[in-house]
């Protein structure tokens, strides 16, 4: 028996596919170039024409690659808006490819835009990587045919002009968005993001515990030590494999391929996981040193 696992992508989604390919390739190439430049920052040897280097303008002004990304996003975005009148799939594919390149350059320095300072190599620079992964996930779901506004594409909305029916659809949409807000306030960005495409995930995320550092925990858990303790323990268990994978990848990129030991993982977990501070004016606080032990 022959199994066919081939995935046939509709012709109309090809611009999304090329956007995703250009986005991922640009991100990895950019990160490789930046790491190369950083590793040779103190090298006094004259650079050859093909060796990557920082882009500078007069007066020693360093031009971040986010600037190039913004320009490409603007140009390709205007091109796609223009093509929306009578453009075809091939033209949209070309514009989407350049949009993907520009978007990758922008999101690679998303942390710089968010913090208004160069935190590319700092802990806060992790925000850029999170933003890139989020963009890849959303694009992948769109390519597979998932639609975050699918509740407006159901038969009752298209075929029935009844006020009651349409009110029910709108109420469902409002409930979905409300659940998404709750999930995001609980610090579950990925659950909220994918839940907009797969609605049951939003219900699960809204019912389950908040992450300990999230706004929801700040408002609801700071006066409930047991619940905060459960949130801290749960976060540590769930984050452990993620941290292990991240540290392993960092070692590989640094040329030291090895699996991180427990001490290194626990140290990273101690830095990342913390209880949310109590709201201003609230005397309640959680002693983190007594709420969670580092599980092996």
Automatic annotation (TrEMBL):
Keywords annotated in UniProt: Membrane, Transmembrane, Transmembrane helix
Protein species of origin: Mycolicibacterium agri
Membrane-traversing stretches: 16-37, 63-85, 92-116, 131-151, 163-184, 190-210
Protein's UniProt name: Integral membrane protein
Presence of keyword Aminoacyl-tRNA synthetase: no
Region of interest (Disordered), residue spans: 277-296
Entry superkingdom: Bacteria
């Amino acid at each position: 028996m022959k199994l066919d696992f081939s995935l046939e992508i509709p012709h109309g989604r090809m611009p999304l596919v090329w956007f995703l390919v250009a986005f991922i390739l640009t991100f990895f190439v950019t990160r490789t170039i930046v790491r190369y430049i950083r590793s040779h920052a103190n090298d006094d040897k004259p650079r050859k024409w093909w060796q990557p280097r920082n882009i500078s303008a007069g007066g020693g002004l360093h031009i971040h690659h986010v600037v190039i990304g913004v320009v490409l996003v603007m140009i390709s975005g205007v091109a796609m808006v223009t093509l929306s009148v009578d453009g075809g799939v091939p033209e949209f594919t070309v514009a989407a490819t350049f949009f993907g390149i520009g978007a990758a350059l922008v999101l690679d320095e998303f942390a710089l835009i968010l913090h208004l300072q160069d935190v590319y190599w700092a802990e806060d620079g992790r925000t850029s990587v999170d933003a890139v992964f989020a963009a890849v996930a959303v694009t992948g779901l769109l390519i597979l045919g998932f639609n975050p506004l699918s509740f407006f594409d159901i038969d009752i909305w298209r075929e029935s002009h009844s006020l009651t029916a349409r009110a029910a659809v709108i109420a469902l949409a409002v409930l979905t968005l409300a659940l998404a807000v709750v999930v995001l306030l609980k610090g579950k960005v990925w659950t909220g993001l994918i839940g907009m495409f797969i609605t049951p995930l939003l219900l699960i995320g809204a019912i389950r515990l908040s992450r300990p550092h999230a706004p929801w925990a700040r408002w609801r858990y700071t006066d409930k030590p047991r619940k905060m303790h459960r949130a801290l323990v749960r976060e540590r268990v769930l984050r452990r494999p993620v941290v292990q994978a991240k540290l392993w990848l960092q070692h590989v990129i640094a040329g030291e391929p090895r699996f991180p030991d427990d001490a290194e993982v626990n140290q990273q977990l101690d830095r990342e996981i913390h209880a949310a501070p109590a709201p201003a004016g609230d005397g309640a606080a959680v002693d983190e040193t007594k709420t969670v032990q580092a599980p092996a």
